Amino acid sequence: MLTDLRLPAGSGFDVIDAAREADADAAVIVMTAFGGVEEAVRAMKAGATDFLTKPVDTEHLMLLVGRAIERRRLLTENVLLREDAQRRFGLPRVLGDAPEFQECLKAVQRAAGTDANVLLTGESGTGKELLARTLHQLSARARGSFVAINCAAIPEQLLENELFGHEKGAYTGAGARKVGKAELAHQGTLFLDEIGELAPALQGKILRLVQEREFERVGGLQTLSVDLRLVAATNKDLRAAVANKEFREDLFFRLSVFPVEIPPLRRRRGDILKLAEDHLDRQARELGRKGLRFSEATRKALVDHAWPGNVRELHNCVERAAILSKGLEIQPADLRLDPAQGGPRIADVIDLSGTLADVTRRATSLAESEAVRLAMAEAAGDRVIASARLGLSPQALARRLKPDPD
User: What's the pTM value of the predicted model, to 2 decimals?
Assistant: First the structure.
């Protein structure tokens, strides 16, 4: 806001008050005649950002305007950094060598090279927000802001306000304009977590943001445009939600231009110990317990557990064990694992789709393959000994050992 202190009606002090009331962070530059420095100082105390004397020097004016814009950018960045620090504290690095997870990371890298909307799917606790941040950092928008909002954590009536902001007087208590998350994500990335929880009334407004990159603040008439990358995440089956008329089909297709499925931890068992030990090292540093480690029995218990809560559950378990362990070697009892979750679910091992005959055939084939593998391992690769243990002829065993044709 650029205003003179002396106006035909009212004064520049009225303008300062109105601007600050409409937007507490608004920058106001006041002009005053030469010799009116005391009045300018009073204006600064009233909330003006800067002042200049008349006649106005254009270069000086542009310098002050540029300084005001930079100040506003830093204020916005500071708000985002505070929120970001709260979310990022304790977040793990992206770790994982399992083929399924490596494929997921490759997909994220490919998506980062585009500006396409990305839909991250996977169970709760698999690290969807971490991969969204990774995508942002790998993209051309890395210098912009990463703005996250959890659609399930905010009541429906407040979510629109949080996303799009509001104008002064939009509702009782709206004493000043508020900038929403979508606006803060300009030239950066907007991450909509738990998108499957969006109320039907909001889905249409999100569709417009996704499709046109346009929106209005609550209580506002002006259409605002933003340049942002949209990444969404869900642990729901959105296709089923579309079929059940719970989620808009057009929004689903707009969001899932580039879908990436994150595998659950039980499908990447080779990564369990790496993730657990990395988090244990961090906990040991925070607790000042150098040398904290897992016993061999504990390592086996970690690998054998089903981890229904995925990486989040694993981290919570390791943190608890680090606190509870009496010595430097963490024992299985320190993990406090639920015995009922002691192994993978049958649905994670056998495809249960199709008819009962289909499921039986797949289960029998899997059991036979595992029995042959164990027999060959126990016989050190001797087919005669292995076939005798299995009650098969060597020829029959040889047929079972042949790879299936493509």
Answer: 0.64
